[in-house]
Amino acid sequence: KRTQSVFNVGFGFYLHNKIYDIGVSIPRLAKAGIDASSESNEQATEARHIYGFFGLRLSLGDFWKVHPATIIKIPENGPLDIDIQSNFIYNDQVHMGMNIRTGGTQETLFESMAVILGFNFTPSIFAALSYDFTTTAIREYEDGSFEILIKYSFLKNKLPKHIQNPRYY
Q1: How many CA atoms lie within 13 A of 118 on its CB side?
Q2: Residue 63 half-sphere exposure toward CB, CA atoms < 13 A
């Protein structure tokens, strides 16, 4: 077994308020070479990716909120990917949403779609289930995937009652 350490530096910013979130990141600014094997002269090089994020928090009345968001992924030497997601939240407890991802092949407009259902059990405990299915030719070989998210938030009396995390918008 062979191990190797590589240098990395990234850049990003994230701005938010009660209505919107916006961010940009480049996780790997330095391109490091990684040897494929000790006996080979082949070498792989890391590729840079640029990520952009924009989301809104909108109220639809006393009980409903909607959180639309878009993530744009620009990989070096690869196709542009755009995720468009919208979550509807009922009474700050039930989360229902859908995600559409572009990319994949040029024959299809969308690469995949996902449906999401989540529930706030307590102010600290949130769980969600999503089902993701592809719309490209790969669907002949796979039936989609289920994902489970369980989140526990450590709350302190000095912190605000609700903290929004951009990982689960």
Answers
A1: 24
A2: 4
